[in-house]
Amino acid sequence: MRSSVSLTDLIVNPTPLVLAEEVSRSVGCEVWVKRDDQTHPRYGGNKVRKLAPLLADARGRGVTHVLTLGAAGSHHVLATAVHARAMGLTVEAALAPQPSSAHVEEMLRASAEQASVLHPCGSVPSAMLALGLRSLALRAKGARPMIIPVGGSNALGSSGYLDAQFELAAQLASMGVPSPDVQVCALGSGGTLAGLLAGRALAGALGDVWGVRVTPPIAVPSWRIASLARAILRRRRSTVALPPVRVFEGALGRGYGCPTDDARRATELFARDGLVLDDTYTAKAAAGLIALARRTPRRYLFWQTLSSAPAGALLGSADAPLPPRLRSLLR
Ligand SMILES: Cc1ncc(COP(=O)(O)O)c(C=O)c1O
Q1: Ligand 1 pocket check: which of 38, 39, 189 to mutate, most ligand atoms within 8 Å of Cβ?
Q2: What's the 141 CA to ligand 1 centre distance in angstroms?
Q3: What's the helix, strand, coil split of the chain in %, to 5?
Q4: Same domain, 171 and 288
Protein backbone atom coordinates (compact mmCIF):
# COMPACT_ATOMS: atom_id res chain seq x y z
CA MET A 1 0.00 0.00 0.00
CA ARG A 2 1.26 3.47 -0.92
CA SER A 3 2.24 5.79 1.89
CA SER A 4 1.02 9.37 1.71
CA VAL A 5 4.33 10.70 3.05
CA SER A 6 6.16 12.78 0.46
CA LEU A 7 9.95 12.72 0.50
CA THR A 8 9.98 16.36 -0.57
CA ASP A 9 8.04 17.32 2.56
CA LEU A 10 10.61 15.56 4.72
CA ILE A 11 13.76 17.27 3.45
CA VAL A 12 15.17 19.41 6.25
CA ASN A 13 14.95 22.59 4.27
CA PRO A 14 17.17 24.57 4.44
CA THR A 15 19.98 22.37 5.75
CA PRO A 16 22.16 24.27 8.24
CA LEU A 17 25.02 26.50 7.07
CA VAL A 18 27.83 26.71 9.62
CA LEU A 19 31.35 28.10 9.88
CA ALA A 20 33.89 25.31 10.47
CA GLU A 21 36.06 27.20 12.93
CA GLU A 22 38.85 24.65 13.43
CA VAL A 23 39.15 23.93 9.72
CA SER A 24 39.17 27.68 8.98
CA ARG A 25 41.91 28.27 11.55
CA SER A 26 44.01 25.43 10.15
CA VAL A 27 43.81 26.45 6.47
CA GLY A 28 43.97 30.21 7.13
CA CYS A 29 40.68 31.30 5.53
CA GLU A 30 36.94 30.94 6.18
CA VAL A 31 35.48 27.50 5.44
CA TRP A 32 31.69 27.26 5.65
CA VAL A 33 29.88 23.94 5.59
CA LYS A 34 26.47 23.30 4.03
CA ARG A 35 25.17 20.47 6.20
CA ASP A 36 23.51 18.27 3.60
CA ASP A 37 24.28 15.40 5.95
CA GLN A 38 20.99 16.57 7.53
CA THR A 39 18.67 16.46 4.50
CA HIS A 40 16.57 13.77 6.17
CA PRO A 41 16.30 12.46 9.75
CA ARG A 42 16.11 8.80 8.71
CA TYR A 43 18.81 8.80 6.06
CA GLY A 44 20.23 12.07 4.68
CA GLY A 45 23.14 13.16 2.49
CA ASN A 46 23.13 14.38 -1.10
CA LYS A 47 21.07 11.47 -2.43
CA VAL A 48 17.92 12.77 -0.78
CA ARG A 49 17.95 15.95 -2.88
CA LYS A 50 18.10 13.81 -6.03
CA LEU A 51 15.56 11.24 -4.86
CA ALA A 52 12.96 13.90 -4.03
CA PRO A 53 12.23 14.74 -7.72
CA LEU A 54 12.90 11.17 -8.91
CA LEU A 55 10.48 9.55 -6.48
CA ALA A 56 7.86 12.26 -7.03
CA ASP A 57 8.07 11.36 -10.74
CA ALA A 58 7.83 7.64 -9.91
CA ARG A 59 4.70 8.25 -7.89
CA GLY A 60 3.15 10.36 -10.66
CA ARG A 61 3.76 7.57 -13.19
CA GLY A 62 2.35 4.77 -11.05
CA VAL A 63 5.72 3.00 -10.74
CA THR A 64 5.67 -0.24 -8.71
CA HIS A 65 9.38 -1.17 -8.63
CA VAL A 66 12.47 1.02 -8.39
CA LEU A 67 15.59 -0.60 -9.86
CA THR A 68 18.99 0.96 -9.27
CA LEU A 69 22.68 0.15 -8.99
CA GLY A 70 25.92 1.15 -7.33
CA ALA A 71 29.04 -0.11 -5.61
CA ALA A 72 28.69 -2.52 -2.67
CA GLY A 73 28.69 0.28 -0.08
CA SER A 74 26.69 2.72 -2.21
CA HIS A 75 25.02 5.54 -0.28
CA HIS A 76 22.72 6.02 -3.25
CA VAL A 77 21.49 2.42 -3.13
CA LEU A 78 20.86 2.68 0.60
CA ALA A 79 19.10 6.05 0.30
CA THR A 80 16.90 4.69 -2.51
CA ALA A 81 16.09 1.57 -0.52
CA VAL A 82 15.11 3.62 2.56
CA HIS A 83 13.08 6.34 0.87
CA ALA A 84 11.44 4.46 -2.02
CA ARG A 85 10.43 1.71 0.38
CA ALA A 86 8.87 4.29 2.71
CA MET A 87 6.69 5.30 -0.25
CA GLY A 88 5.50 1.71 -0.64
CA LEU A 89 7.69 0.87 -3.66
CA THR A 90 9.65 -2.37 -4.13
CA VAL A 91 13.39 -1.64 -4.42
CA GLU A 92 15.87 -3.90 -6.20
CA ALA A 93 19.54 -2.97 -6.61
CA ALA A 94 22.44 -4.44 -8.58
CA LEU A 95 25.76 -4.07 -6.77
CA ALA A 96 29.35 -4.06 -8.03
CA PRO A 97 32.46 -4.92 -5.94
CA GLN A 98 34.20 -2.22 -3.84
CA PRO A 99 37.31 -2.11 -1.57
CA SER A 100 36.19 -3.11 1.91
CA SER A 101 36.12 -0.89 5.02
CA ALA A 102 33.99 -0.86 8.18
CA HIS A 103 31.83 1.93 6.71
CA VAL A 104 31.37 0.17 3.34
CA GLU A 105 30.36 -3.05 5.12
CA GLU A 106 27.89 -1.14 7.29
CA MET A 107 26.28 0.45 4.21
CA LEU A 108 26.03 -2.97 2.52
CA ARG A 109 24.41 -4.49 5.61
CA ALA A 110 21.93 -1.62 5.78
CA SER A 111 21.08 -1.94 2.06
CA ALA A 112 20.54 -5.68 2.53
CA GLU A 113 18.10 -4.88 5.34
CA GLN A 114 16.27 -2.05 3.53
CA ALA A 115 16.07 -3.21 -0.11
CA SER A 116 13.71 -5.96 -1.24
CA VAL A 117 16.35 -7.70 -3.39
CA LEU A 118 20.09 -7.14 -3.98
CA HIS A 119 21.73 -8.62 -7.09
CA PRO A 120 25.52 -9.02 -6.66
CA CYS A 121 27.32 -8.46 -9.99
CA GLY A 122 30.96 -8.61 -11.13
CA SER A 123 31.20 -5.02 -12.44
CA VAL A 124 29.19 -1.86 -13.10
CA PRO A 125 28.51 -2.82 -16.77
CA SER A 126 27.20 -6.23 -15.71
CA ALA A 127 25.06 -4.52 -13.05
CA MET A 128 23.56 -2.31 -15.79
CA LEU A 129 22.82 -5.36 -17.92
CA ALA A 130 21.26 -7.20 -14.96
CA LEU A 131 18.94 -4.24 -14.29
CA GLY A 132 17.88 -3.99 -17.94
CA LEU A 133 16.96 -7.68 -17.99
CA ARG A 134 15.18 -7.45 -14.66
CA SER A 135 13.17 -4.48 -15.90
CA LEU A 136 12.05 -6.45 -18.99
CA ALA A 137 11.08 -9.43 -16.82
CA LEU A 138 9.03 -7.23 -14.48
CA ARG A 139 7.26 -5.51 -17.38
CA ALA A 140 6.38 -8.91 -18.85
CA LYS A 141 4.62 -9.66 -15.55
CA GLY A 142 2.63 -6.41 -15.71
CA ALA A 143 4.69 -4.47 -13.15
CA ARG A 144 5.82 -0.87 -13.76
CA PRO A 145 9.55 -0.69 -13.04
CA MET A 146 11.66 2.49 -13.16
CA ILE A 147 15.45 2.39 -13.47
CA ILE A 148 17.33 5.06 -11.51
CA PRO A 149 20.89 5.46 -12.88
CA VAL A 150 24.08 5.36 -10.78
CA GLY A 151 23.97 8.02 -8.08
CA GLY A 152 20.50 9.20 -9.18
CA SER A 153 22.48 11.43 -11.53
CA ASN A 154 20.21 12.09 -14.48
CA ALA A 155 18.85 15.56 -15.30
CA LEU A 156 15.73 15.16 -13.17
CA GLY A 157 17.53 13.87 -10.06
CA SER A 158 20.42 16.32 -10.31
CA SER A 159 18.02 19.26 -10.59
CA GLY A 160 17.71 18.85 -6.81
CA TYR A 161 21.13 20.51 -6.59
CA LEU A 162 20.03 23.37 -8.83
CA ASP A 163 17.36 24.06 -6.21
CA ALA A 164 19.97 23.72 -3.46
CA GLN A 165 21.82 26.75 -4.87
CA PHE A 166 18.68 28.88 -4.52
CA GLU A 167 18.29 27.56 -0.98
CA LEU A 168 21.90 28.57 -0.28
CA ALA A 169 21.47 32.04 -1.80
CA ALA A 170 18.38 32.73 0.35
CA GLN A 171 20.13 31.40 3.45
CA LEU A 172 23.24 33.55 2.94
CA ALA A 173 21.01 36.60 2.53
CA SER A 174 18.96 35.85 5.66
CA MET A 175 22.07 35.14 7.75
CA GLY A 176 23.90 38.21 6.43
CA VAL A 177 26.83 35.99 5.36
CA PRO A 178 28.75 37.00 2.21
CA SER A 179 28.68 34.59 -0.74
CA PRO A 180 31.47 32.01 -0.93
CA ASP A 181 34.27 32.54 -3.45
CA VAL A 182 34.63 28.79 -3.96
CA GLN A 183 32.20 25.89 -3.43
CA VAL A 184 33.57 22.34 -3.20
CA CYS A 185 31.79 18.97 -3.47
CA ALA A 186 32.79 15.36 -4.10
CA LEU A 187 32.61 14.31 -7.75
CA GLY A 188 31.40 10.71 -8.03
CA SER A 189 28.71 10.11 -10.63
CA GLY A 190 28.70 13.89 -11.27
CA GLY A 191 25.07 14.80 -10.55
CA THR A 192 25.81 16.89 -7.48
CA LEU A 193 28.44 18.96 -9.29
CA ALA A 194 26.30 19.29 -12.44
CA GLY A 195 23.29 20.44 -10.40
CA LEU A 196 25.39 22.94 -8.45
CA LEU A 197 26.84 24.32 -11.70
CA ALA A 198 23.39 24.66 -13.25
CA GLY A 199 22.11 26.32 -10.07
CA ARG A 200 25.11 28.61 -9.94
CA ALA A 201 24.38 29.64 -13.55
CA LEU A 202 20.81 30.60 -12.62
CA ALA A 203 21.18 31.84 -9.04
CA GLY A 204 24.10 34.19 -9.72
CA ALA A 205 27.12 35.23 -7.67
CA LEU A 206 27.84 32.22 -5.51
CA GLY A 207 31.51 31.75 -6.45
CA ASP A 208 33.33 29.09 -8.48
CA VAL A 209 32.09 25.51 -8.12
CA TRP A 210 34.73 22.76 -7.87
CA GLY A 211 34.28 19.00 -7.88
CA VAL A 212 36.92 16.82 -6.26
CA ARG A 213 37.25 13.67 -8.31
CA VAL A 214 36.85 10.41 -6.35
CA THR A 215 36.35 8.06 -9.34
CA PRO A 216 38.69 7.58 -12.33
CA PRO A 217 38.32 10.42 -14.90
CA ILE A 218 37.18 7.97 -17.59
CA ALA A 219 34.06 7.18 -15.50
CA VAL A 220 32.77 10.76 -15.59
CA PRO A 221 34.76 13.08 -17.87
CA SER A 222 34.27 16.84 -17.51
CA TRP A 223 32.33 17.07 -20.78
CA ARG A 224 29.73 14.69 -19.32
CA ILE A 225 29.28 16.98 -16.33
CA ALA A 226 28.83 20.01 -18.61
CA SER A 227 26.34 18.14 -20.77
CA LEU A 228 24.37 16.98 -17.70
CA ALA A 229 24.35 20.55 -16.33
CA ARG A 230 22.99 21.81 -19.68
CA ALA A 231 20.30 19.11 -19.64
CA ILE A 232 19.28 20.23 -16.13
CA LEU A 233 19.00 23.83 -17.35
CA ARG A 234 16.97 22.75 -20.39
CA ARG A 235 14.46 21.12 -18.03
CA ARG A 236 14.02 24.59 -16.50
CA ARG A 237 13.76 26.11 -19.99
CA SER A 238 16.95 28.10 -19.46
CA THR A 239 19.68 28.77 -22.01
CA VAL A 240 21.88 30.73 -19.59
CA ALA A 241 25.66 30.20 -20.03
CA LEU A 242 27.23 27.55 -17.83
CA PRO A 243 30.14 28.42 -15.52
CA PRO A 244 33.35 26.44 -16.24
CA VAL A 245 33.52 22.85 -14.94
CA ARG A 246 36.40 22.95 -12.43
CA VAL A 247 37.72 19.60 -11.23
CA PHE A 248 40.41 18.98 -8.61
CA GLU A 249 42.24 15.88 -9.81
CA GLY A 250 44.75 15.40 -6.97
CA ALA A 251 42.71 13.55 -4.32
CA LEU A 252 41.81 10.17 -5.90
CA GLY A 253 44.96 8.26 -4.86
CA ARG A 254 45.12 4.66 -6.04
CA GLY A 255 41.47 4.61 -7.04
CA TYR A 256 37.80 4.64 -6.08
CA GLY A 257 37.33 3.69 -2.45
CA CYS A 258 41.10 3.45 -1.74
CA PRO A 259 41.99 5.56 1.31
CA THR A 260 44.71 8.24 1.09
CA ASP A 261 46.85 9.94 3.74
CA ASP A 262 45.50 13.39 2.77
CA ALA A 263 41.94 12.11 3.18
CA ARG A 264 42.80 10.64 6.59
CA ARG A 265 44.28 13.99 7.70
CA ALA A 266 41.19 15.81 6.36
CA THR A 267 38.96 13.44 8.34
CA GLU A 268 40.88 14.23 11.53
CA LEU A 269 40.72 17.99 10.93
CA PHE A 270 37.01 18.09 10.06
CA ALA A 271 36.26 15.91 13.11
CA ARG A 272 37.46 18.81 15.29
CA ASP A 273 34.40 20.71 14.00
CA GLY A 274 32.16 17.71 14.67
CA LEU A 275 31.96 16.68 11.01
CA VAL A 276 32.16 12.97 10.14
CA LEU A 277 33.60 12.11 6.71
CA ASP A 278 33.84 8.82 4.77
CA ASP A 279 36.96 7.48 3.00
CA THR A 280 35.39 7.14 -0.45
CA TYR A 281 33.75 10.54 -1.04
CA THR A 282 33.72 13.26 1.55
CA ALA A 283 37.23 12.80 3.03
CA LYS A 284 38.75 13.09 -0.44
CA ALA A 285 36.54 16.11 -1.21
CA ALA A 286 37.70 17.71 2.05
CA ALA A 287 41.33 16.92 1.18
CA GLY A 288 40.79 18.69 -2.15
CA LEU A 289 39.29 21.72 -0.41
CA ILE A 290 42.24 21.91 1.99
CA ALA A 291 44.71 21.78 -0.93
CA LEU A 292 42.80 24.50 -2.81
CA ALA A 293 42.46 26.71 0.27
CA ARG A 294 46.15 26.44 1.17
CA ARG A 295 47.05 27.31 -2.42
CA THR A 296 44.53 30.18 -2.74
CA PRO A 297 43.03 31.42 0.54
CA ARG A 298 39.50 32.73 -0.15
CA ARG A 299 36.05 32.14 1.37
CA TYR A 300 35.19 28.44 0.87
CA LEU A 301 31.99 26.45 1.18
CA PHE A 302 32.08 22.66 1.59
CA TRP A 303 29.03 20.57 0.68
CA GLN A 304 28.90 17.91 3.41
CA THR A 305 27.13 15.19 1.44
CA LEU A 306 27.44 12.18 3.78
CA SER A 307 24.34 11.33 5.83
CA SER A 308 24.82 11.87 9.56
CA ALA A 309 21.59 10.04 10.51
CA PRO A 310 22.43 7.13 12.83
CA ALA A 311 22.87 3.99 10.69
CA GLY A 312 21.93 1.68 13.58
CA ALA A 313 18.20 2.05 12.96
CA LEU A 314 18.63 0.81 9.38
CA LEU A 315 20.75 -2.20 10.18
CA GLY A 316 18.45 -4.86 11.54
CA SER A 317 20.44 -7.61 13.26
CA ALA A 318 24.00 -6.27 13.07
CA ASP A 319 25.46 -9.52 14.45
CA ALA A 320 24.14 -11.71 11.63
CA PRO A 321 26.94 -12.63 9.20
CA LEU A 322 26.67 -11.18 5.69
CA PRO A 323 25.55 -13.87 3.22
CA PRO A 324 28.59 -15.10 1.18
CA ARG A 325 27.07 -13.77 -2.09
CA LEU A 326 27.17 -10.24 -0.64
CA ARG A 327 30.46 -10.64 1.25
CA SER A 328 32.15 -11.53 -2.05
CA LEU A 329 31.48 -7.92 -3.17
CA LEU A 330 33.92 -6.61 -0.54
CA ARG A 331 37.43 -6.76 -1.95
C1 LIG B 1 28.52 10.74 0.51
C2 LIG B 1 28.63 11.09 -0.93
N3 LIG B 1 29.09 12.29 -1.27
C4 LIG B 1 29.23 12.66 -2.56
C5 LIG B 1 28.90 11.79 -3.58
C6 LIG B 1 29.11 12.22 -4.99
O7 LIG B 1 27.93 12.66 -5.57
P8 LIG B 1 27.67 12.46 -7.11
O9 LIG B 1 27.51 10.99 -7.35
O10 LIG B 1 26.46 13.23 -7.37
O11 LIG B 1 28.88 12.97 -7.84
C12 LIG B 1 28.39 10.53 -3.28
C13 LIG B 1 28.01 9.59 -4.36
O14 LIG B 1 27.65 8.47 -4.16
C15 LIG B 1 28.25 10.16 -1.92
O16 LIG B 1 27.78 8.96 -1.56
Answers
A1: 189
A2: 34
A3: 45, 15, 40
A4: yes
